[in-house]
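Please check this one:

***
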Amino acid sequence: MYYFCTMESNRQKKIAGVLQDDLATILQKTLKDAGHGNILISVTKVHVTVDLSLSKVYLSVFPSKHATTILKEINQVKSKIKHQVAQLTRHQLRRMPKLLFFNDDSLDYIEQIEDAVKGDENPIENTDLLDHRKKT
């Protein structure tokens, strides 16, 4: 059982920051080497467990239609990525945490909200979309 604490310690934050920077560099280079030069990837957030044995890595892929295929490819070479990060962080970490990659689709969610507000489905301008409260 892995325990991700909502209040991260300073050590967890520091390790997450180091992992985030190094993973961003390695993942961009890996995508470029794999022939995906037109795809942009960024590491949006890294969460590390209390015992520093596991890390959840959230990736944002642009264009988002390639997110699932890119995530599959990254998971196939996860051990290679972990080794490369371990080489970069060998003086900062004793043990490299296990990496779990997830798609961060928060930008798509924000875009959907903006489209809803700008378009015909805007509840501010079209109040018929909202349920009207009845006085009892």
In short: The mean pLDDT is 83. Residues 10-33 form the longest helix (24 residues).
